[in-house]
Amino acid sequence: MPARRKFLKSDQTEAAHIVQCVRLYALACPHVAFTLLEDGRVIFRSPECATLADRVAEIFGRQIAADLVPLAAAEAGMKLSGLIGRPGTGRPTRHELITFVNARPVDSRTLNYALIESYHESLPKGRFPLAFVFFEIEPAAVDVNVHPAKREVRFRSEPQVRGFVIRAVLQRLRELGAAWNQKWKPESGERKARGKKRKAGSGERKA
């Protein structure tokens, strides 16, 4: 339609948008194989994957997948699941900050800001968290008609959603932080003991 054609960008830009759309739906449905063709040429392919982590590794690389940990939480008719980055693991852009609402990829300011705020003490300024998360809520509690493309959504109770996401992610990050500290505490103690022995030995040689 002429009215829509004037909003189209270059063929290259529009093709990139299509690839991104297919990647998002591939993340939403890891058990389905996806192949995208352009003029008979394969420009995106992801085989059927057993888990979301496998799909992330397939699309974004195994290094990013290795920096992710599972997340699962539920509260008052809301559920949050998926994968989030370990404390200290961040990216320079929001490209790997991906959210789904009721299994549909969306741009949600509420979810994005809640995730970023949760990492306030876990990432340096200017870095963004890794996140591939699925938020579930009653359909009546979310408005999907905010934008013609239906990528933006609004929640009936934005503060409630934001608070739940922050609590869920912070709890997971604290669990990871506690596990990390416990892992390194014995080694830290051994290093201190070795340091004291070296100092003692040095004093004996001087005497």
Order of helices and strands: HHEEHHEEEEEHEEEEH
CATH topology of the largest domain: Ribosomal Protein S5, domain 2
**CATH class descriptor name of the largest domain:** Alpha Beta
Question: Could you report the average pLDDT, rounded to the nearest whole number?
Answer: 86
Low-confidence stretches: 184-193
The separation of the N and C termini measures: 93 Å
Strand content: 15-25%
Number of structural units classed as domains: 2
- Biggest sheet statistics: 5 strands, mixed
**Spatial order of the strands in the main sheet?**
3-4-9-6-7
The total count of helices amounts to: 6
- Indicate the CATH architecture of the largest domain: 2-Layer Sandwich
Structural class designation? alpha+beta
Any idea what the radius of gyration is?
23 Å
What is the 3D form? globular
Helical content (DSSP H or I, runs of 4+): 40-55%
Number of strands: 11
Describe this structure in words.
With 207 residues, the chain is of the alpha+beta class. The protein has 2 domains: 59 residues, no CATH class; 115 residues, Ribosomal Protein S5, domain 2 (2-Layer Sandwich). 46% of the residues lie in helices and 24% in strands. The strands form 4 sheets. The protein has a 5-stranded mixed sheet with strand order 3-4-9-6-7, sandwiched between helices. It has a two-stranded antiparallel ribbon with strand order 1-2. A two-stranded antiparallel sheet has the order 5-8.
